[in-house]
Design a protein that fits this description.
single chain, mainly alpha, Growth Hormone, Chain: A, 0% strand, MFS transporter
């Protein structure tokens, strides 16, 4: 018999922990390839143009962005669990394609499928956790979710770098992905329960803000209205979408560019893997603190400070030419991202009504994950025209400008009790 829904982190601890584990496996699918693919492009496929090398990141970002939208729409319409399962089915061919790829086009196609997998599964686990915990602990819930996902990115990047150095760039690093998929399908199919009933329960008891904010967003909205509010009109939602896009622009640029930049100093593959893992590692661990902190102090100042910290970190990385400077920059970049990432998702949960929350999360994540594509394109073009260091300077300037824009336009969305 199905369980009657009850809101709260403690009341849903078992299901919440299970979804944290599933999201760690989602992150691991990205981490298995981040250290390896830029090196594979140069050593096995003989690619030299940065713009062309980064096509796989652009393909990943565009398809993930589109999948986010459909994840939100379908999870509101059909339920969360079916979307989660379908997302994992799209991952099944990815490690095999990367192992067997005879040309770079295979790598790009594998990342199209990976983007669909990431959009459907990550968006759905986000929505499910928001469903379970209710309004009081959204920041904490998102911190735990994103910590698991990006902590797994870091660990898998480190493991993939070690496996590549010990056993070669293929196939060993991608065997991690095959294991992740098998475990995730088992957990999602047999143990994860549907959470849409929790959202309906919250909608019944939903309390309007005392200051009148969000009154125009109560009740059912069309998909077009939700997209317009989240993208352009509603100040907090649209500011979150902008900050999310730039945040992932930095991640997309770093994904393709950092391994190549670090290789210019003659570092080993394992050293490059360690440097790259520092960024998502600090990002993942930091969210255990920043998500809960936003529940106590509010969202806006954490977001503006985080974008500013990212700008400083990128400037340090751009100005450095060795392991020490890059390591400090990577740690700072992870810290700045940790301030922003769970807090932006909590903003969406604060403002979006429970009946259309899944779609709002989907639209926000469309913009956020288009940042991968923008980062790959801008980073590739800037690196080809001006060099690797200059491309990082460009990202630093964009991050600083975003911090200013958010500080001016976003209002505080959370009223701590």
């Amino acid at each position: 018999m199905p369980h009657d829904p009850v809101l709260g982190l403690r009341q849903n601890a078992a299901q919440f922990a299970l979804l944290v584990a599933v999201n760690a496996l989602v992150g691991g699918m990205v981490g298995q390839q981040q250290t390896v693919l830029p090196l594979l492009a140069e050593s096995e496929f003989g690619l030299t143009g940065y713009t062309y090398i980064f096509t796989y990141i652009a393909a990943f970002g565009i398809t993930k962005a589109a999948a986010n939208y459909f994840a939100g729409t379908f999870s509101d319409r059909y339920g969360r669990k079916p979307v989660l399962l379908v997302g994992w089915l799209f991952a099944v061919p990815v490690p095999v394609m990367l192992i067997m790829a005879p040309s770079w086009e295979w790598v790009v196609l594998a990342n199209v499928l990976l983007g669909i997998n990431q959009g459907l599964t990550w968006s759905t686990t986000v929505v499910m956790k928001i469903d379970l915990v209710g309004p009081a602990n959204r920041g904490l819930a998102m911190g735990l979710n994103e910590a698991a996902g990006y902590g797994a990115v870091a660990v898998s990047s480190l493991l993939a770098g070690y496996l590549a150095e010990q056993h070669g760039l293929r196939p060993a690093p991608f065997l991690l992905g095959l294991a992740y998929i098998a475990i995730a399908l088992m957990l999602s199919g047999f143990f994860v329960r549907e959470t849409r009933g929790h959202a309906h329960l919250e909608a019944q008891d939903h309390v309007r803000r005392s200051d009148g904010m969000h009154d125009h967003l109560h009740g059912e909205l069309t998909n077009r209205q939700i997209a317009v509010q989240t993208s352009l009109k509603e100040p907090a939602l649209s500011s979150a979408s902008l900050a999310g896009l730039v945040n992932n622009l930095n991640f997309g640029l770093s994904w393709g560019l950092f391994p190549l930049l670090f290789a210019t100093a003659g570092l080993t593959i394992s050293q490059i893997g360690l440097l790259f893992a520092l960024y998502p590692g600090v990002w993942g661990a930091g969210q255990l603190v920043t998500g809960a902190l936003s529940d106590r102090v509010g969202r806006k100042h954490l977001i503006t400070a985080g974008m500013g910290t990212q700008a400083v970190a990128l400037a340090l990385i751009a100005a450095s030419s060795g392991f020490a400077g890059w390591a400090v920059g990577a740690v700072l970049l992870g810290a700045g991202t940790a301030m922003v990432y769970p807090t932006l998702l909590a903003v969406i949960g604060d403002v979006a009504h429970p009946v259309w929350r899944g779609r709002a999360v989907g639209v926000y994540r469309v913009w956020r994950d288009l940042g991968y594509a923008f980062g790959a394109i801008i980073g590739g073009v800037a690196a080809d025209l001006m060099g690797l260091h200059a491309a990082v300077w460009v990202a630093a300037v964009v991050s600083a400008a975003t911090a200013v824009a958010v500080s001016v336009r976003m209002y505080e969305t959370h009223q701590p009790v």
